[in-house]
Amino acid sequence: MNNTTRVYGGLLGLVLSVGSAAADETKPAPIPMLESAASQGFFFAGGHYMGDPGKEVMDGAMYVEVFHPKKPTQRYPLVFFHGAAQTALNWLGTPDGRKGWAEFFLEKGYTVYLVDQPARGRSAYHPAIDGALATFAAPVIQKLFTDPEELGSWPQAKTHNQWPGTGSNKGKAGDPVFDAFFATQVEFLASNVTTQKLVQDAGAALLDRIGPAILVTHSQAGAFGWLLADARPTLVKGILAVEPLGPPFQDAVLAEGKARAWGPTDIPITYDPPVKDPSELSVAQQDKPDAPDLSACWMQTAPVHKLKNLAGIPILIISGESSYHAVYDHCTAKFLTQAGATVDYQRLQNHGIHGNGHMMMLEKNNIDIAAYLAGWAEKHIK
Predict the structure, then answer these.
(1) Are residues 226 and 311 in contact, defined by beta-carbon separation less than 8 angstroms?
(2) What's the pLDDT tens digit per position in 76-125?
(3) Distance, CA of 69 to chain centre
(4) Whether residue 219 lies in the annotated active site
């Protein structure tokens, strides 16, 4: 193994060999390698000292890992932002040992930046400053990500068939692939407000350092794309949003009630005419949804305020056929479009990519999805 090689996780082989009774009869999965990386490095972006005199700590710094391709061909690098309970491991490989998106895009000639959100993973967490943590228990992971076909309550859940593994226990605790994935799950900040503030600050510092880039966001990180485009509109050259946080203003499917008071975000984002308080945004829900198995969207009513700093940035939003996001991601796309953003919303099943849940970057057809993203970026981001 040379110094350009990265490993998905040391826990992978251990979990696969001793994690369950079934694993005793299973050979450990291959360990994913980033064989297309010519060089690699790491640094921290952002951060500031906090605390009483003599007790200062560095808060808000974001761990960043960078991989350079052997054959660079792309104008802009990709910056990958993971979702809740995840870290940069999402992009390095799959829990059953297959190639991940980082390797795929390195092969395409992209420089790849992978981050651990501030107060997450390799980015320092300070309880007294950053606040309470949350976590996902194994049954929640099974319902939302790995076994929605059995446990999911949304209409599209039954079509899920892309989680890796075999046998009757596939997607459940005790299955080697599930155990390898669950070993990667970590605690995360309970407050979306705090999370978004930290990532906007650190992400802006990252862009200031590396220059223009394309953002790849997933789930919770969807808000980061809009906020970073708002903070650094000239440095965000495109956004590939994989099932981004949403829908605007109101939770759906997994919870009910008001959420994301600023529309696509929980913290202020720049509108034109200016909005000092989210109560100044006049919104109403559709009388009926666009289709029976979809959520009715909340949209602005006149006068419509524009997200002026997102205008002109190519944005792709994709949804998997079987994910709970399939119920409402169209609402995020409709809201952003109404607010003046250039958004292309695509359902993967319309492109022959079927059966995907929310963690599509780890599923059996993950490379098909990465190829779709790469093709879209080549066509739309200049």
Answers:
(1) no
(2) 999 999 999 999 999 999 999 999 999 999 999 999 999 999 999 999 99
(3) 22
(4) yes
As a dihedral over the C-alpha atoms of residue 103, residue 374, residue 381, residue 80, rounded to 10 degrees, the angle is: -40
CA–CA distance, 144 with 212 (Å, rounded to integer): 34
Q: Phi/psi at 278 (nearest 5 deg)? A: -60, -20
Q: Is residue 329 within 8 Å of residue 345, measured between CB atoms? A: yes
Q: Decide which of 3.40.50.1820, 3.40.50.2300, 3.10.580.10, 2.40.50.100 is the CATH code for 11-380.
A: 3.40.50.1820
Domain spans in the chain, listed from the N-terminal domain onward: 11-380
Query: What's the rounded Cα separation, in Å, for the pair 70 and 195?
Result: 34
Regions in the chain scoring below 70 on pLDDT: 1-26
Beta bridge partners of 285: 298
Tokens of 125: 């967490």
CA distance 261 to 264: 8
Closest of 310, 325, 300 to residue 226, by C-alpha: 310
Q: How many CB atoms lie within 10 A of CB 146?
A: 30
User: 45: closest CA among 130, 124, 105?
Assistant: 124
Q: Containing H/E element for 210?
A: helix 192-210
Tell me the per-residue pLDDT of 313-332, one tens digit each, with 9 for 90 and over.
999 999 999 999 999 999 99
A 10 A CB-CB count for 357 gives 30
Q: Mark residue 119 as left, alpha or beta (left: phi above 0; alpha: psi -120 to 50; beta: remaining).
A: left
Count of beta carbons in the 10 Å neighbourhood of residue 260: 23
d(CA 91, CA 361): 7
Active-site residue, from 36, 123, 219, 295 = 219
The predicted structure's pLDDT at residue 289:
97
